[in-house]
Design brief:
Two copies of one chain form a homodimer.
Chain A: H1 21-28, E1 32-36, E2 39-42, H2 44-63, E3 67-68, E4 74-76, H3 77-82, E5 95-99, E6 111-115, H4 120-127, E7 139-148, E8 163-173, H5 176-196, E9 203-209, E10 216-223, E11 229-233, E12 240-242, H6 243-248, E13 261-275, H7 277-281, E14 285-287, E15 293-295, E16 297-303, H8 305-316, E17 333-337, H9 342-354, E18 359-362, H10 368-378, E19 382-386, H11 388-392, E20 395-400, E21 406-410, H12 414-417
Parallel strand pairs in A: 3-7, 9-12, 17-18, 17-19
Antiparallel strand pairs in A: 1-2, 4-6, 5-6, 7-8, 8-16, 9-10, 10-13, 11-12, 11-13, 13-16, 14-15, 19-20, 20-21
Helix pairs in contact in A: 1-8, 2-5, 2-8
Catalytic activity (chains A, B): tRNA(Pro) + L-proline + ATP = L-prolyl-tRNA(Pro) + AMP + diphosphate
Domain Aminoacyl-transfer RNA synthetases class-II family profile (chains A, B): 38-325
GO cellular component, one term (chains A, B): cytosol
Chain lengths: 418, 418
């Protein structure tokens, strides 16, 4: 894409009320726009990155057999009363609304609806019609959907928003063994996802409380000062334990090690065995091999692509701006023309497009200082500068955004280098 | 995909409270689930079709230079008060909610928010930071986003939902000439979209009232008894006129023809010149070539992919079930194995996958009657039956879902035939 066509512009300052580093940088770079506290719009560059994260998650969910669906945000009060999750005293972050609030006519004025903060209830309820026999199990469904959470505080940018995209997968199995089998597959898929988006090194499978149906659940915690959690890392087995667990047992859950390192971290994903809590309450039953009626065993598995994106900014960005791993960068290459090289630069841009390179072309009529500073703020993995000086040597200057390493590359060898 | 793995099942009857043909068939075929009146979930087959419609629209919006973004559903009351669209007496289909409804702590209890029914206000407001000069214009932005409309009645299935996906594009130009230029491009893009999704023949560019800033706007109306509108068709110039216009002037807007045919139709898209209504109210100004401050000239362009999907069902489905055009079918081919042909059928399935054919493989252990009836209900464009009888002749039976035409095709020639 030609940058002169892009409607967004960089800015020197983030809004004064924005305290999170991720949102400050993303706003300055024109990736997102702050609509209000905890509510952000994704602009072209930001949406490209968000969609690449979504694409990676989708591939890994499909690889473990997940079937993609799309539920609704509007939720029936009745369903959530069954599991005792409607009352604001029990769940304090509901956004609620009213059906036909303004229509006096049909007697439905004031009927309360919720805006989904999660989807166990409607999904379990919906599946009742499709599950009757053990032969229908196991399977899993997932969606990418907007969740609404009426958070008291929203000071972490896109890492904790009041309206945000979430991938939530739900698994349904006939018994614990079958459930554990899928749960382990999902755990491996999550590990792959965080590796693929560039957070593998900083992200730890973390033991957390399991609720009534299993000893542990697992969080995926990424170490960053911007996190709101504390985890305890075992240097011996590379496992982590969250605060709740460590308060009960002060040793490593994996190896019993006693020397644990305390870190601040953000929960970028979690997987949880739900047991039969929802299937019993909402009647998701099947008939087993011996003609006995049983509730399905469930699990839930969440990742917020926006939170992942914000975390990547917190972990990888530097004082000059954003730094994207190639797998999720809006564009792989930022081609920057300096000085009077219009025609040659355009030809190079076209040849990169022809070679299927995802390239943002800064063809703007601006100073070298502005263009290079913007390029660092925008953070594409590879910058290619073309200028009269580089052309003297039939070359371009290729810079790695993460390391800052620069080399002159002959025009003829650029495609191979990229 | 193997149908034995698909968690959805067909059903004989739609829910009793569902009166729309599109929703009845889509529910029976397991494409959608009714969450409540006017609110539907999309299941794997339905989501595949919805996403194909989205993909076609996205391609055509990109082709006219649209830049994709993603705004928020939660909306600030203040923005909508500026244009006098907050008051329920002015806009009666708002869903509204409250920030921190349950949080007593921060004094914000009860602060009202809206759930976007459209996005002119927040988009215009956001763009103020990016537009300053005539050099920044023209451009256009679009999104695929969930809209919430608190409709009094919701009896048309996914053709009129209370929560639904919408593609809304907004254009920004420096003057009327530049605006008209884009408006015409968008009109042509819309014509292409309806052709590509299979509604070209039944869909008419329809003259509608233009509001304060232009004589006409344009609706795209598809002729179907399931529609809620009446249009008047000119057989001479293939234009249509909506009821509002025809009440003012009873002749064809295009050629002055007086013999117009009355039809029931559904509005599947619309394009509208907004003039400077929103840019003046929300201060989207630019400085022109003569250093004069002027408001941007805007247009808005909407299509609801779910409504398009419902309309296609209304127009193309028959008494046996759904009938999808190939461009938007969940799968191009429905491979159905009858009788004891498991191994050969699996090999054929694999060879179709290897040939990049999108294929749903009915490998279920069910009767021929059930499998063939399900295949007609699901509506893939091409059905391939493999059975001991067809294999006697080293062939499969290929049936076109729309025409019912059937022929025996040798296994060796199937890929070429598809």
């Amino acid at each position: 894409m030609r940058q002169s066509q892009l409607f967004t512009k960089t800015r020197k300052e983030a809004p004064k009320d924005e305290v999170a580093k991720n949102a400050q940088l993303l706003i300055r770079a024109g990736y997102i726009h702050k609509e209000m506290a905890g509510v952000y719009a994704y602009l072209p560059l930001g949406l490209r990155t968000l969609n690449k994260i979504v694409g990676i998650i989708r591939e890994e969910m499909n690889a473990i057999g997940g079937q993609e669906i799309f539920m609704s945000s509007l939720q029936r009060k009745e369903l959530w009363e069954v599991t005792d999750r409607w009352d604001d005293a029990k769940v304090d972050n509901w956004f609620k609304t009213n059906l036909n609030a303004t229509a006096e006519a049909d007697g439905k004025r004031g009927k309360e609806l919720g805006l989904g903060f999660t989807h166990e209830e409607p999904i379990t309820n919906m599946l009742e019609q499709f599950v009757s026999s053990y032969k229908d199990l196991p399977f899993s469904v997932y969606q990418f959907q907007t969740k609404f959470r009426n958070e008291l505080r929203a000071k972490s940018g896109i890492m904790r928003a009041r309206e945000f995209l979430m991938k939530d997968l739900y698994s349904f199995s006939k018994d614990d063994a079958s459930h554990e089998d899928f749960y382990e597959k999902a755990k491996q898929a999550y590990i792959k996802i965080f590796e693929r988006v560039g957070l593998g090194e900083q992200t730890y499978v973390t033991y957390a409380s399991g609720g009534s149906f299993s000893e542990f659940s697992h969080e995926f915690q990424t170490i960053t000062d911007a996190g709101e959690d504390t985890i305890y890392l075992c240097p011996d087995c590379r496992l982590a334990i969250n605060k709740e667990i460590i308060e009960k047992q002060s040793v490593c859950v994996g190896c019993g090690g006693k020397e644990l390192d305390e870190h601040t971290a953000v929960e970028v994903g979690n997987i949880f065995s739900l047991g039969t809590r929802f299937s019993e309450a909402l009647n998701l039953m099947y008939v087993d091999e011996h003609n006995k009626k049983k509730p399905a065993v469930m699990g839930s598995y969440g990742i917020g692509p926006g939170r992942v994106m914000g975390t990547i900014v917190e972990v990888l960005a530097d004082e000059k701006g954003l730094v994207w791993p190639k797998s999720i960068a809006p564009f792989a290459v930022h081609l920057v023309s300096l000085g009077n090289v219009g025609e040659t630069a355009s030809q190079l841009y076209q040849s990169l497009l022809d070679g299927n390179v995802e390239v943002l072309f800064d063809d703007r009529d601006a100073s070298a200082g502005v263009k290079l500073a913007d390029s660092e703020l925008l953070g594409m993995p590879t910058r290619v500068v073309i200028s009269p000086k580089t052309l003297e040597r039939q070359s371009v200057e290729v810079t790695d955004r993460a390391t800052g390493e620069t080399e002159l590359v002959p025009l003829t060898g650029l495609m191979a280098r990229l």
